[in-house]
Write a structure and sequence with these properties.
Helix content: 25-40%
CATH topology of the largest domain: Gamma Fibrinogen, Chain A, domain 1
Radius of gyration: 38 Å
Number of domains: 2
Protein name: AGAP010774-PA-like protein
InterPro entries: Fibrinogen-like_C, Fibrinogen_a/b/g_C_1, Fibrinogen_a/b/g_C_dom, Fibrinogen_C-term_domain
Pfam families: Fibrinogen_C (PF00147)
Oligomer: single chain
Largest sheet: 9 strands, antiparallel
Order of helices and strands: HEEEHEEHEEEEEHE
Organism: Anopheles sinensis (Mosquito)
Length: about 270
């Protein structure tokens, strides 16, 4: 019965009613106190459960991180670091992992058949043969690469820098003209500088049948349509020849049917 509906019975005194009301209030207060204690207890239990769950999740996350790192290490070992490590003797496109980081493998054309008995394991970084790809590109495109490795393409200056900055590499240039003549140029050293150096070209001694057109550009910076780093003051060689290159000056053009440029590490 609600307190405001209590009615004094015959013989009850206000003191008795006051005692009854006080007892009911104390009883309800006790109930509330018990509910509060129960809530606090269950809150503590939930906090303990929450802590345990978070601890289990944290342990699982750490375990997964370790397992992922181990998987990356194993996969990194399975992928070849360069075309010289590809277990084949047939020219084709392969994924390589030169950085030892499974998140950064990329596809390259590995050449094993150059018709000049120079062996295989060459990584192709430039291929032009039918005009299907526009090479008049900006700096960013030449930095990261473009085209299809199975056709005309440019591998990317940043990849060239990272793959040639350590050790010693040799450069092979294959040339075919419209008269059916094929020739090549071989250089005993090849290295590309960093982007801060504008991907400076370093080549060694030249040998074999083709004219030595690369040594003239030795030490020059790379130029594109939006970065003119050549030594020619009168005009931009990249704009003149509609393509990016290590231009020292705007040289005389010779028409070729196809060009393929590739490199490999020297043992």
């Amino acid at each position: 019965m609600p307190l405001n509906e209590l009615v004094l019975a015959d013989g009850d005194t206000p003191a008795v009613m006051e005692a009854v009301i006080k007892a009911m209030i104390d009883f309800r207060r006790e109930i509330l106190d018990n509910l509060k204690l129960s809530l606090e207890y269950h809150t503590e239990q939930l906090e303990e459960i929450k802590y345990h769950v978070e601890h289990v999740i944290h342990e699982q996350e750490n375990r997964m991180k370790k397992e992922n790192l181990e998987i990356q290490r194993i996969l990194g070992e399975l992928l070849p670091g360069s075309c010289t490590q590809v277990k084949t003797n047939t020219t084709g496109a392969f994924y390589i992992n030169p950085y030892g980081n499974i998140e950064k493998p990329f596809m390259v054309l590995c050449n094993f058949d150059n018709h000049f008995n120079l062996g295989g394991g060459w990584t192709v970084f430039q291929r032009r043969m039918d005009g299907s790809v526009d090479f008049f590109r900006n700096w960013t495109m030449y930095k990261h690469g473009f085209g299809d490795v199975n056709g005309e393409h440019w591998l990317g200056l940043e990849k060239l820098h990272l793959m040639t900055k350590s050790g010693r590499h040799e450069l092979l240039v294959l040339l075919d003209d419209f008269e059916g003549n094929s020739t090549y140029a071989l250089y005993d050293d090849f290295k590309i500088g960093s982007e801060e150096e504008k991907y400076k070209l370093i080549v060694g001694n030249h040998s074999r049948t083709a004219n030595d057109n690369f040594s003239y550009h030795n030490g020059t910076k790379f130029s594109t349509l939006d970065q003119d780093n050549d030594s020619f003051d009168k005009k931009s060689c990249a704009d003149e020849f509609k393509g990016g290159w290590w231009f020292k000056s705007c040289y005389i053009r010779y028409s070729l049917k196809s060009t393929t440029m590739m490199f490999r590490s020297r043992s």
